[in-house]
Amino acid sequence: MTADLFGADVADVPVIEPSPAPILAGTAERNGRELNGSLKSFPDLGADEGAAADSASPHSFGDVPDVPAVHLNNGAGSSGTAGGTAGVPGVPALADLIEAATAGDGGDTEETAVPSVPEENRPCFKVYDGWTLLDTGRKLRPGVWLHGMSKPKKEEMPVPVDSWVCGPLHIEAQTFDGTENNFGRLLRFKNTAGRWRSWAMPMELLKGDGSDLRGELLAMGLELDPFARQTLARYLQERTPKKRIRCALQVGWCGDVFVLPDAVIGPNAAGVIFQSGERSHDEHGQAGTLDGWQTEIASRAVANPLFLLALSAAFAGPLLKRTNTEGGGLHFVGDSSTGKTTILEAACSVWGGPGYRRSWRATANGMEGAAALFNDCLLALDEISECDPREVGAIVYSLGNGRGKQRASRTGAARSVTRWQAFIVSTGERTIGTTMMEGGHRTKAGQAVRLLDIPAARRFGCFDELHGMASGTALSDAIKRAATQHHGRAGRAFLERLTHDERDMAVRLESLKALTEFNPPEAEGQDKRAASRFAMLALAGELATEYGITGWPEGAALDAAVIGFQAWRSMRGGGNDERRQILDKLAGFLERHGDSRFSDWTADGAAIRDRAGWWKPDDTGGRLYLFNAEGLREALRGFDFKRALDVLEAAGAIPKANAEGERSRLERIGGRRMRVYPVFGDALREVGNGA
Asked: How many angstroms separate the Cα of 386 from the Cα of each of 359, 363, 435, 576?
């Protein structure tokens, strides 16, 4: 009796509740089941594939407050249990005790009895959104019920059996991506807090015993019968819904709409939904108001170029695809406690709260998963010192290219590669190159232009204007507090305007790239590539201002981008980065080994260990180093040898190639003719060492 009071979900206790027998195809029971329109757990959403969506927006996935109770679909319940409990003087009936014990849960109990499911229509599934009284006197708890028939023994007759499967769970539509893969089900269910929520469930979660699916549903608050594991999977696959919705597996652009984990923004948002096998997508949270964000954060970026540059970078992610631009970003470098993390958190507030920011403390493989979460958005990475220096180079290339590592499946076939496109904002006390050198790697030019080093050294750390604050620390603290109170609004407001803006953003970007500020006279290929990234920041910031998101004066974002470009060039130096590295490396080799691995060309008998060559006076009184082939290749290790010789010739550090294209020369050393590579030491030092 006590167990019934607290655990039973019906007013009458059946004699037995065995699992229903399988119904064979072609039998009357199977035919009756196929004709039964109540197999679906929701009303018909329209057989016409092109029918418009109903008034409930299919892209709202959060808890829906104040959802009215949904009445019973196509009948309910079954008979076949005991008719009641014998009355005992002075003792209330069991049904009355259950009703009293569940009074708090049955506030929406339907007092009018509904017909039970006829035997010819069994087995079938039905969903009851509230407590339901059957015409047999039995009361069903809210949820999905399997109305079946018992499996008789010997001469016994089968009797109706009703089994509770889970809480109220409706199957609203089927989902699949643009390639007609990654099928799923759009589910709407009530959690144990009494709130309705939706989830696009990948069908692949039904593989095996379905434990992954059950774990996700339990975590989202749906009650499940622990003994109905296979029954739940059977219900979810019982009948394919007629309504179809395209699903997106990543945050970002899907056609002309932009998909976030809890919303789809754009003119055709009703036909797209975000589908994921995981419930946790709290990066894009919201709090506060857009006005509060403008007042407490955006307004304080005025007259602070680095701060304004970071906020502009937050709006740049959605523009990458619209302008056909590669990913990449900025790396703010400076001493500790200068405000680098503060402006990073402010940039994160455009899209989400404290959980949006990521750390550099990850492997290259782990960073792939993080980048995929922020596709077409901002990827914020804090403190590069936490990353293994040996991993930094691979991570920078991977993030900039937008492609993960190619991996093999269990059968050896190539698996699909993870792809993304994001604008990156990073911070650290060391540059990308310094961090990589600590791990024993040389920075390649491609890495240097994918993540641009920006010195965070202004008047007050990262700031020039304190906006009435007593110090840079006070301003930093105020911005951090505001970022926790107002976040996630600006990015969505930007998308609302951008998704309806049909102008050619690539043309606007080209007009900014053509400005003289981004085309200094001595600029080369890598300078222009970096200038394009700053032009993108100018476009993003000015567009956000035009949309009324930031409240900045017109031209403020462009001025900040120009200042950022100049700061990058001042830190890096002009010209081609790879050429400068080649010259610096060869000059450094001569400084380290000029007297220990080279000897006077007339002293052929001198004992030199690991000889790299000889030297002789040149016409200006300096030294002309005569490298042997092995010595020069060692000095230029890490660079393509022919490419390095081209750079040295262009810089005037070696003689021009002869008619046959050879750069080595025959020299008589100690009475022998030897082929060597002449290098002008003084000329090399003049163009090397960062000049």
From this structure: 8, 11, 10, 30
